[in-house]
Specification:
Strand order of the largest sheet: 1-2
Number of helices: 5
Low-confidence stretches: 1-23
Distance between the termini: 78 Å
Shape: flat
Structural class: mainly alpha
Amino acid sequence: MLLQRALPRLFARAAPASSGLVAGRVRFSNTPDEGKWGEKVLLPENYKDDTGITGLPVVPNARQVLIKIYERTLDEVARLIPDPEAPYRADVEAITKHRLKIVQEERLHSRIEERIGAGQVEQLIEMADDELELVPLAAEWKLWEDEPGREIPIRVIQDSSMDAPPYSDDREAPKEGAQ
């Protein structure tokens, strides 16, 4: 009970207005008041319990992680694909620079998510990681280069569940006098 009363006051004294903390409510556990909502306390402004996506954990410092991944991606794509006119490099740099600028401008994860519009920050981290892993492969494949006689493998998937019934315009014409 003492901790329940002291916690909000502790945070209030220790947190200046520009500290990045916001008011929140906590649910007590392992106390006589277990399950009840307690007093308002100050929580980090990017605080969330979970992502709501199974298997995708919360990343409390997602902004810093994104900045590092985006900077590494820009370095890798410039190092591995020397031609700045290569379509893949140009596209990756444009998207990554745009997202990096947003992440550097915004402190709140919710604002980053809103401005980028591609999911939660944790999902953005996964996408950025995937792109970073793809850069060396794209540099090796050089798919933007047109080589005579190069065959690009195309895999066609036959799935009968996706077959649509054949289109037919054999509808019966309305009978005369029928309403």
